Each structure stands twice: as C-alpha cells, then as structure tokens.
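hey can u run this one w/ nicotinamide-adenine-dinucleotide bound, need the structure tokens asap thx
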Amino acid sequence: MRKIALLGATGSIGRQALEIVEAHPELELVAAASGSQDVTRLAPLTQVGGDLTELLDRAEPDIVLNAVVGFAGLPATLWALERGVTLALANKESLVAAGDLALAAQRRGGGSLLPVDSEHSALHQCLEGRGPESVESLVVTASGGPFRGKTRAELEDVTPAEALAHPTWSMGPKITVDSATLANKGLELIEAHFLFGLPYDRIEVVIHPTSVVHGLVRFRDGAALAHLGYPDMRVPISYALTYPERAATPVPSLDLAAGLTLEFSAPDLETFPLLSLARSAGERGGTYPCAFNAANEVAVAAFLDGRLPFLGIADAVADVLAAVDGAPARDLDDLVEADAQARRLLEPVA
Ligand code: NAD
Ligand code: MG
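ok here u go:
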C-alpha cells in the first residue's frame, strides 16, 4: 500500500489524480486539501486552506502529490523533500521559486522527486536516471497555446475568455493563461534546469502544436529519445504515483496507422517575451526566478480580473525583474521576502 496525500484535490490535476487513485487498490488516499472548496468526503484527513504542512504531519503519507497552484504550494514541497517523502510535483511554481533551497532539502531528505508536469515526466522517462554528462541537450515542447501565429498587434485586446481557450490541454485558469503567454514554458525551462541539472543553454523549447511529443533528450552519442502520447495528464500522474511500475491507464495508446505528422518550429520570442524573460531570470539565478514567478502570478490574476491587458503581463514581469536585486535566498525567510517584494512592486499596476 502507498499512502497518498493529495494537495489541490479540487483542481484539474487533483480531480484526475483522484481518478487514478480510485482505480488502484494499492494507492490509499490518506489526506486531501484544497484552497477553498469543501473536501471533507474525499479522505480520512482533510484541510481547506491554511498551513498544509499541519495536514501532512498528521497524515504521514508515503507520497505527497502537490497539485496546489502557485507559490502557496512551497511549504508542502519543502516538507516532503526535507523528510525524504516521495514528492510527485505538479506545483512547478514552488520548484521555480525555491530551486536551490528545494534541492538542498532533497539532498538532506534523500527522497525522490517525481515530476508530474508532462514534459518533465517525459524527460524523466527518456533519461532513466542518467546524469547530465551523457546528455547533450533537453527539449521541452510547447503547444504554442491559443495565440500561436499571432502578432503583438493582434494580442493587444485579447480577453481572458480567449486566453482560456487552450487548443490541446484542459487545465486550471492560471496555467492556461501561462500557456497563452508562454510563461508556462518559461517556468518549465527553469523547472527542467533544477530537476535534471543541465545549464540553460542545453535546454531548448520548441513549438509542437499537437502536443504528442512531450519531451526529447539528445544524448552525446547522437541518439535522441522522445516521449510520445496523446495529451492527457492522467499518464504523468499515474507514472508518478505508481513509479516504477507504470500501471495501466484508460488513455488509448498512440495510433500511428491513422496518420501522424509531427511538426516542430522555433518559438516566437518577440510576440511572447515571457519565455526569454524566464530564461534570463533562470540564467541570472538567485531569487530572479522567484521574482519572475511572483510577478507573473500577480499579473495573471490581474489579467483574469480585467485589470491588466494581455501584453501587460510580460511588461509587469519585466519591470519587476529590472527592479529587484535577485540576491540569493539563504533560507526560507529570505525567499518569502523576495516573493513578497516582487508582489509589492506590482501593487500600483495590478
Ligand atoms: P487548478 O486551479 O485547477 O487547481 C488548483 C488547486 O489548488 C485547487 O484544488 C485549489 O483549491 C488549490 N489551492 C489553490 N490555492 C491554495 C492554497 N493557498 N492552499 C491550498 N490549496 C490551494 O490548477 P491545476 O491546473 O490543477 O494546476 C495545479 C498545479 O499543477 C499548477 O502548479 C500547475 O502549473 C500544475 N500543472 C497543471 C497541469 C494541468 O493539466 N492542469 C499540467 C501541468 C502542471
Ligand atoms: Mg507542462
């Protein structure tokens, strides 16, 4: 039996995780949490909002599936890593914001960190535990979102409803807007850097509109391994919860005879500046990724509320990155302050 604590149980990932857990008698849901909706009937121990580490202390899970959205997921990520409890991580924002602290916690705890983000699950599978020395580069694919092919001028007046119409994935609102701006790929670039230990110039983002290839690893011997499958988050969720067993899922396997064309192209960095902003925040290191994430969270919320235009999201993030010093966080207090400082800088606009 594996005891699972599911944080963010009412969200897009959370609901799909419940389906996976229900299908496997050896997975036992011992705790469930949400930000605001009722979860009392989902698990023996539940919590709505507040400090989720209190729930984790009581539940003593074998696996924490962190599917909270945003920086709010950080304490749970650190709780699991510090204790060597397996962390199935959907909450990429916590790893982006706290990368160095999170990896230090993992080294102390000695447990596993299994990505749930589909691209990183794909890369994890292609790598099979091989270290950076045998790898030439990693490729993270992006659908390009609903605005692929548009110009900046065409994006001036887009509405939240248009940004929320994602072509290939059905997800929560924050990550869906991040997919429309390509901030999601920016977060994923930083996430890949911390998960797999490669420098940024060896992690590439390519546009691949149908989201069939999720990730690809180029090895030093000239071989490249890719991970293919229909876009369905139940696959990476199941992979993380049943690792290394690779349990069955209801997702159909890939039909090649029906005709499958795989298209790739370079991202349009001019129209979608958040991808370049994330790359430079990652390269500069310290608390720049934390500031990138915090500014993006505030700006996306303001866009969804109708207080900021679509293109204003990238402008807000660029302004914050130009204003902060990015000094490395020595501890969690430093990091929380870097996050808060970035949010304060956007108070006047967002
Ligand atoms: P969502 O908005 O659908 O759900 C978010 C969940 O987090 C909800 O259960 C909500 O109640 C909970 N939550 C929010 N604030 C909280 C707080 N302060 N304390 C406790 N719980 C809180 O989001 P989602 O699409 O399921 O995404 C969740 C995470 O997974 C995000 O980090 C996202 O980037 C990542 N992710 C999602 C997908 C996807 O397909 N949805 C794919 C890859 C990665
Ligand atoms: Mg992803």
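Residues 8-14, 33-37, 49, 52, 67-69, 72, 90-93, 117, 169, 171-172, 174-175, 233 surround nicotinamide-adenine-dinucleotide (ligand 1) (CB under 6 Å). anyway lmk if its weird
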